[in-house]
Amino acid sequence: MTTANQHTVVDDTSVSALLERGRRLATPVLREAVDRLAPPMNTVAAYHFGWIDECGRPSEADGGKAVRPALALLSAEITGAPPETGLPGAVAVELVHNFSLLHDDLMDGDEQRRHRDTVWKVHGPAQAILVGDALFALANEILLEPGTSEAGRATRRLTRATRMLIDGQAQDISYEHREQVTVEECLEMEGNKTGALLACAVSIGAVLGGADDRTADALESYGYHLGLAFQAVDDLLGIWGDPEATGKQAWSDLRQRKKSLPVVAALASQEEAATRLAHLMRTDAKKTQEEFEDFDEAEFATRAALIEEAGGREWTSAEAQRQHTTALAALEPLDMPAHVREQLIALADFVVVRQR
Predict the structure, then answer these.
(1) Residue 80: inside a domain, yes or no?
(2) What angle do CA 49, 25, 351 make, to 5 degrees?
(3) Closest to 8 measured CA to CA, from 346, 347, 323, 317
(4) Could you write out the DSSP letters of every residue in 32-73?
(5) What GO biological process terms are annotated to this protein in UniProt (predicted)?
(6) Which CATH number goes with the domain that contains 235?
(7) Which residues have C-beta within 8 Å of that of residue 187, sequence separation ≥ 6?
(8) Helix or strand or coil: residue 264?
(9) Among 63, 185, 194, 195, whose Cα sits 20 to 30 Å from the Cα of 98?
C-alpha cells in the first residue's frame, strides 16, 4: 500500500520517536491509574496492557501502537504548552480505547490480541466486562482531577466521543445480522467506532492547553478523517494482513463474518465476482459460528480472492487515501508551530502505510 499523499515520504524515525514519547510519558500515569482498581481487576488490566503475563510475572509484551496518546500530547503543543499539559487527556483517551478493546474482543469472540490470548480467554468474560467498565470510569476520573474549566471542556468531548464509539460498536454488531449494508452505513459506523476517539485524542490536549472551540473542532475534523483512514487500513489488514505482524489469525475479519469496507464495497460493485461472493455469504449466514470456523484455509482464501476481484480491496485502499487527504486539509487554516504540523502530517502518513 502506498501513502495517500504521494509527495510526502513517511519519516519512520520521527513517527517512532513521537509514539515512543507518548508511551514514555503516559505509561507511568496509566500504571498509577490501574493500581487504583480493586484486585483482581488491577492485575487483569495489567495483563491486558502487556505489563504482566497470565501468571502475573513482569512482561514486555506489545502494548499497542499508542497513536492516541501521541496525538493528545502533540495537540497540547499547538497552543504553545508543553506536551505534559495533554497528559491527563492522553491517559484518559487510552483508557477509553482499551475499555472498548476489552469489550470488543469479548463481543467479537476474538481470542488473540497483540500476539497473545485476550483477557476474556484468560480471565473469563466477567472480568473482561468489569475491567472494561472500570477503565472507562478511570478515564473520566483522571481527566477531571485537575479541576479546571479546560478539564471540564475536555471531559465533555471525551464523553461525547465515547458515546459515539459505543454507537459504532452497536451498529457493527447489528450489521453482522443484515444481508445488505451500504458503503455509506459502513463509513458512518467506522466514523463512530474509530474516528470519534481519534478526533477526541487530537483535540483533547489542545483543549487542556486552552485552545478555543474553533481550533479544537478543526483538530477533531483532522482526527475524525484520520480515524476513517486508520479503519480502512485496519479492514485491509483484517483480511490480507500478515498474522506475524497483526497478532491476529489469518483472514480474521472473514472468520467473524464482518461486513467491513472491502466486503461491502465488493458487494456493491457490478462485477460478476460480487454475485458469487453474495451467494457464498448468504450460504455462510445459515451456518453456526462453529461450523463456519471449521472451514479450511482455502475457503477463506476463496472469499478473499472474490472480494479482491470485485474491487473491494482497491476501493478500500483508495478510500484510505481519500480520508488521509481530507484529514490534512482540515489542518491548513490552523496556526501552529511548524514541527507540530510536520508531525501531524507524518502520523497521518504512518496510518495509511502501516502493516499492523
Answers:
(1) yes
(2) 70
(3) 346
(4) HHHTTSPTTHHHHHHHHTTSB-TTS-B--------HHHHHHH
(5) isoprenoid biosynthetic process
(6) 1.10.600.10
(7) 228, 261
(8) helix
(9) 185
187 part of a folded domain: yes
Q: Are 293 and 254 in contact (CB under 8 A)?
A: no
Q: For residues 325 and 329, give the distance between their C-alpha atoms in angstroms, rounded to a whole number.
A: 6
The C-alpha cell 514514555 sits at: 24
In a domain? residue 8:
no
Written as nine digits, the cell of 250 is 489469518
Closest CA to 279 of 267, 287, 288, 291: 267
Range of the domain at 78: 13-353
The neighbour count for residue 57, using CB atoms within 10 Å, is 7
Distance of CA 158 to the CA centre of its chain: 15
Q: How far apart are CA 144 and CA 88, in angstroms?
A: 8
Peptide bond into 88 cis (omega under 30): no
Q: In this predicted model, what pLDDT tens digit does every residue of 123-151 receive, in sequence order?
A: 999 999 999 999 999 999 999 999 999 99
* Cα–Cα dist 221/212, whole Å: 15
Within a 13 Å sphere around the CA of 287, how many CA atoms are in the beta-carbon half? Answer: 15
Q: What is the C-alpha to C-alpha distance for residues 48 and 333, in angstroms, rounded to an integer?
A: 40
What total number of domains does the chain contain? 1
Identify which has the larger pLDDT, 346 or 10: 346
Helix, coil or strand: residue 287:
coil
Q: Which strand (E) or helix (H) includes residue 116?
A: strand 116-117
Q: Could you give the CA distance from residue 341 to residue 331 in angstroms, rounded to a whole number?
A: 8
- Domain presence at residue 7: no
| Amino acid 61: pLDDT | 79
Nearest to 149 by CA among 81, 210, 217: 210
Alpha-carbon span 66 to 90, nearest angstrom:
9
Q: What is the pLDDT of residues 60-95, one digit of tens each?
A: 877 778 899 999 999 999 999 999 999 999 999 999
If one counts every other C-beta atom within 10 angstroms of the C-beta of residue 159, the result is 16
What per-residue confidence (pLDDT) applies to 349? 92
* Encoded amino acid at 261, one letter: L
177: which 3 cell numbers? 445480522
Residue 10: pLDDT band (50, 70, 90) is low
User: Quick one: how many helices (H) and strands (E) in the chain?
Assistant: 18, 2
